[in-house]
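Researcher: For the record, we're logging two predictions in this thread. I'll number them. Prediction 1 follows.
Model: Prediction 1, sequence and structure:
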Amino acid sequence: MVGCFGIAPRSAPNSSKTRRKVEPPEYPLWLLKRAFHYGHRAVNDAIRSFGVTPTQMGALNRLVQEPGLSGAELARRLLVTPQAAQLAIAALEERGLVERRADANHGRIVRTYLTDEGRQVVRDCMVPALQAEDEFLSVLTTDERDTLVDLLRRLAKQ
């Protein structure tokens, strides 16, 4: 088992002739990272045929909720770097899913808006993405899912 950042914990030398396997502790952050990885991959597999990545889908989804976000605002909402947000926006713009317009009140800010085609991709992707999430979480009961959401919300508020 590896620790939070993929580092295996060092074990103390065992002087006993008979070595028994000692189970390493479960590191919560490493388990969260692994769970996120597998869930992210499930969603990616579900929406790949639509030609968008989970980050791009997140950007499209956020622009449905908050049209006209700047790249920096979008990065903060998606919890990605500004560079990653700009790459996602550029790829979406190239496909005609978003358009960028200069902010009327601030010359250095560029706002991003969904196109009709972008809204259609969101509609097309949501069902398979949510089905993939549901399938990924199917190992949990409804009560366990509710508990998981509650625990994650509490951790996310720190």
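Researcher: Logged. Prediction 2.
Model: Prediction 2, sequence and structure:
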Amino acid sequence: MSEKELQKQKMQARLDELRAEADKLRAQADGASADAQLKLNEQLEAVQRKIDEGKTTLAALAEKGEQAWVSFKEKASSTWDTTKAAYEEGVSGSESEE
């Protein structure tokens, strides 16, 4: 299996994991106070935007040839880093609201 295919699988697994964690945060928001719900919903919207960006990046990866893969890999990695950071910010924000 090529490095490109391995990276695609890795990114898909990360996106799946992130979606599951976002679902957990949504469940937390359902039981939170009104103010906490507002803040969590804002954070979840930011995380969802990043998930969508990650999905777009993953789809673009499928279209790239092996030659373009090296430069594209850096962008994909950067997108994942910002997606993960947005999620972690949401988690830390929800913990401080409890």
